[in-house]
Design brief:
Helices cover 38% and strands 18% of the residues. The chain has 721 residues and is of the alpha/beta class. It is globular, with a radius of gyration of 32 Å. Bound molecules: adenosine-5'-diphosphate and magnesium ion (MG). Adenosine-5'-diphosphate binds next to helix 10. Belongs to the helicase family. RecG subfamily.
Length: 721
């Protein structure tokens, strides 16, 4: 299908080469131009920042006498023989006699008449490709053929990432033109450049860096412009990170102009009474986080804070304290979780902690989900509208259109990465007062590595629970070949007979909920049979439950609740128990096909045990594939699980294994990810950009704007197009 491409708004900034149509009035968009647009290469600067994948050295012809196996080289010679062979496969074979007496065989498995013509016996040609063999006989498979009489280029030849319908030659010419057209003038203040880490002073200009990376001069080792510690690369990374920090700082400043209710808690009010009523003392980390949140709530700008802490670090009680603070100030609080099971657990805890304090005030904790019965829901909505509901707990249904709050002061979101931008915007209108918006607290058990937090979430203040409540016994993690399943079942038996509880997690089988369910059902039956005669410490027969995604919400809750009460000794489950469930008596976690899970996911699952004082074990069952081996990346994940239980270390390794795009998941798509800088190795540059972005907005806002436009403007234009 042909879709007409509209002309860009400003043709002078459009690098895509244009050809005039016959009448010379309407610009016509050619195939390669459309391909450029598909790649997002619209403005000269976009093309200038489209860096080569690799380089070819066509600046000199290599004598074969100096060649080594595997060298990429340009050779020149006369065609001696040319033939099309049929065996073992149809192929074009030509032999080249090179000036220094060497010979090289050229082989093509796909070829065109142009190849036959270029390789006519007696013709002189140049061939560029990888040399295989030795002095006894050299071969090039699918070399690039070039004319022998053309002058050699002055620099390395860039090879660009491209797409169908976009020939390299076209792309090279477009980039060369763009380099001349793009405004590459300096935007970074000299003082900032003087402090740029990782490069000798003075740092390279953007102009010089791009010239070098697109057209390395003759004599440059082709590996050099690919070395990301090269000053040209440092310059690009610095530019990119600065742009990102400028964007984040801009968002932060915009938030600074919005208003939220100023919430002060009374000195001897609810938070203090809640603390006094808790059966434990807060950890230092919990106290710190609670204080940071309280300070934010007392400011007139909306809080935008992430509370992160490893599984079991006690985030819920910090959330409860924040809620108490808000309620004390006379406002309402909402707490949302991504699943009903999780929301239900929070609800249970919060009712237990807060209701005794709220009841005398005539206020209460209210439950709200999409699956509620109509009358119950109507009553909840009524309480929310009247303000009798001091705290509303539920799934994301809580911020739906028809839920009207009397005065919503704070929204708490558990597992922040499932809470999208649209939901955040919806939330802004829920304060019940047009002049203010609610504060926002997000909670996450997937710690974000420092570098990622600093780049992608710079407009987010972070409180970290880096300390587990005392008395937790460390979890021992073991790798077990799935063939030793019997031993695992025997171990389960021992645990349940001692009155302990066990999780057995079945993997998600790719794209098939049905197969998934079948595997879980089979395991459930197997465990039921194996434990049929077993009794727990009180002589009760052992029961095995099955939890999977297809069950109605009410059934899931009933099963989860039975497990929480200890009525089920074993819970076989697909990954629905992934986050947040809290059953301190569970001491054994079995994860089947552990090699199929992501690292963070494994860590989350493991966090379901080790929540009480009993020694806990996590068994990772792996099944070697057909080759009898587990893939390299799967092995790295399993190794990480055995080596550490520190969520931050796990997150760091997960980021290193997967890269930020996947680490954040598809939900974050739209976040401009880094093209040049690397979160793992460029921490010093990230720090530098973070220091200078606020300075630039303050002292040189026009430069800041120009820099931002250069780096992120193209994306916006492209998306609008
Ligand atoms: P998570 O951070 O994973 O959400 P939870 O809030 O569910 O952790 O807390 C895990 C368990 O630890 C809960 O049973 C909770 O009551 C308990 N807990 C929280 N804080 C403390 C503390 N300071 N001392 C002892 N136990 C605590
Ligand atoms: Mg939690």
């Amino acid at each position: 299908m042909r879709t007409p491409t509209p002309p860009t708004a400003n043709p002078t900034t459009d690098a895509a080469p244009r050809t005039a149509s016959a009448d010379g009035v309407e610009p016509r968009v050619s195939g390669p131009q459309r391909a450029l647009r598909r790649l997002g290469l619209v403005r000269p600067i976009d093309l200038a920042l489209h860096l080569p994948l690799r380089y070819e050295d066509l600046t000199r012809v290599r004598p074969l006498a100096q060649a080594r196996d595997g060298d990429e080289a340009l050779i020149e010679g006369e065609v001696l023989v040319r033939e099309v062979q049929q065996r073992p496969r149809r192929q074009l074979v030509a032999t080249l006699a090179v000036a220094d007496g060497g010979r090289c065989t050229l082989r093509f498995f796909t070829f065109y008449p142009s190849h036959l013509q270029a390789l006519a016996p007696g013709a002189r040609v140049r061939a560029h490709g990888e040399l295989r063999g030795s002095w006894a006989g050299w071969t090039m498979v699918h070399p690039r053929l070039l004319k022998a009489d053309a002058p050699l280029p002055a620099g390395l030849t860039p090879v660009y990432p491209s797409t169908a319908g976009l020939p390299q030659a076209y792309l090279r010419a477009a980039v060369a033109r763009a380099l001349a057209q793009a405004d590459l003038s300096e935007t970074i203040p000299p003082a900032a450049l003087a402090e740029l880490p990782g490069t000798a002073a003075p740092p390279w200009t953007l102009q010089a860096a791009l010239a070098f990376l697109h057209q390395p001069p003759a004599g440059t080792d082709p590996a050099q412009p690919q070395d990301r510690t090269h000053p040209a690369w440092v310059r690009l990374k610095a530019e990119e990170l600065l742009a990102q920090q400028l964007a984040q700082e801009q968002a932060r400043r915009a938030r600074g102009t919005r208003r939220a209710p100023v919430l002060h808690a009374a000195t001897h009010g609810l938070p203090a009474r809640l603390c006094a009523a808790l059966p434990f003392a807060l950890t230092g980390a919990q106290q710190r986080a609670a204080a940071e949140i309280a300070a934010d709530l007392a400011r007139p700008t909306p809080m935008h804070r992430l509370l992160q802490g490893d599984v079991g670090s006690g985030k819920t009680v910090v959330a409860a304290l924040a809620a108490a603070h808000v309620i004390d100030a006379g406002w309402q609080c909402a707490l949302m979780a991504p699943t009903e099971i999780l929301a239900e657990q929070h609800f249970g805890k919060l009712v237990q902690w807060l209701e005794p304090l709220l009841a005398p005030l005539g206020r209460r904790v209210v439950w709200l989900t999409g699956s509620q019965r109509r009358a119950e829901r109507a009553a909840a909505l009524q309480a929310i509208a009247s303000g009798a509901a001091a705290l509303v707990v539920g799934t994301h249904a809580v911020i739906q259109e028809e839920v009207a709050f009397a005065r919503l002061g704070l929204a708490i979101v558990d597992e922040q990465h499932r809470f999208g931008v649209a939901q955040r915007l919806a939330l802004r209108r829920k304060a019940g007062d047009d002049t203010v918006e609610p504060h926002l607290l997000m909670m996450s058990a997937t710690p974000i590595p420092r570098t990622l937090a600093m780049t992608l979430y710079a407009d987010l203040d972070i409180s970290t629970l880096d300390e587990l409540p005392p008395g937790r016994s460390p979890i021992v993690t073991k790798l077990i070949n799935a063939q030793r399943r019997d031993e695992v079942i025997a171990r389960i038996r021992t645990q349940v007979m001692q009155g302990r509880q066990v999780y057995w997690v079945c993997p998600l089988i790719e794209d098939s909920e049905a197969l998934d369910l079948r595997a879980a059902t089979a395991t459930h039956a197997e465990l039921q049979a194996a434990l049929a005669d077993a009794c727990d410490a009180q002589g009760r027969p052992v029961r095995v439950g099955l939890l999977h995604a297809r069950l109605p919400a009410a059934d899931k809750q009933a099963i989860m609740a039975a497990f929480a009460r200890g009525e089920l000794a074993v819970l076989v489950s697909t990954t629905v128990i992934e986050v947040g469930v809290d059953v301190p008596n569970a001491s054994l976690m079995v994860i089947e096909h552990a090699e199929r899970f992501g690292l963070s996911q494994l860590h989350q699952l493991r966090g379901r045990v080790g929540r009480g004082s009993v020694a806990s074990v996590c068994l990772l069952l792996y099944s070697p594939g057909d080759g009898g081996r587990v893939s390299e990346s799967a092995r790295a994940r399993l190794r990480a699980m055995v080596e550490t239980t520190d969520g931050f270390e796990i997150a760091r390794r997960d980021l290193a294994l997967r890269g930020p795009g996947e680490f954040l998941g598809a939900r974050q798509s739209g976040t401009p990810l880094l093209r040049f800088a690397d979160l793992a190795s460029d921490e010093a540059l990230i720090d530098w950009a973070r220091r200078w972005a606020p300075w630039m907005w303050l002292h040189q806002p026009q430069q800041a704007q120009r820099h931002l436009q250069r780096w992120l403007g193209g994306k916006l234009d492209y998306l609008k197009a």
